[in-house]
Amino acid sequence: MTWTEFLHSQAAVACDFFTVDTAFLRRYYVLFFINVNTREVFYAGLTANPTGAWTTQAAHNLFLRHGEQLDTARALVRDRGSQFVDSFDEIFRTEGFKILQTPVRTAVANTFAERWIGSIRRELLDRTIIWNRRQLERLVGDYIEHYNQHRPHQSLGQRPPTPDHGPPEAPPATVTVLRTSRCDGLIHEYRNAA
């Protein structure tokens, strides 16, 4: 059994941090979780100093906000970062999760999280200048909403993880396309007009 097949069989949730540097050389750490089966991403927060206490509180908030979406998950995949302390793991264990730590310096073991980091960097962060924390929070939140509700995923049959509506029953006779801009105009979404 491959590692990917194992993660799917465990209905795993992966988590990781990524860093963003602002124009004024301030570094922020963004924590997120991604459901391996559905590819749905959950924003956990951002901080300038990711301590164990902050990460534990973010995990607690995850279950308060998104506990229903995580009902089927049974394992958490995370790296061996010092900010993932025992109290962080204990929150997941009390919810019935098994903790799967990736081997040291093996980013491919957390491939779902790493792939999402690559997506947000290519599609958003590499195309804009981040000025401050408030702008970063707004853009990351907007991108996650786009990623979960609109962006097609090849592994999901070109459907988003949580579509906001189903496909139309029959193709309309005439097509009028509406464009919506997201992330300060960096991403455009297209929909058929009703």
Can you give a write-up of this model?
This protein has 194 residues and is an alpha/beta fold. The protein has one domain (3-162): Nucleotidyltransferase, domain 5, CATH 3.30.420. It is built from five helices and seven strands; from the N terminus they run H-E-E-E-H-E-H-E-H-H-E-E. The chain has helices spanning 3-9, 52-66, 86-94, 111-123, 133-149; strands at 12-21, 27-35, 41-47, 75-78, 98-101, 177-182, 187-192. The longest helix has 17 residues, at 133-149.
What descriptive keywords fit this protein?
single chain, about 190 residues, alpha/beta, Nucleotidyltransferase, domain 5, five-stranded mixed sheet, two-stranded antiparallel sheet, 5 helices, 7 strands
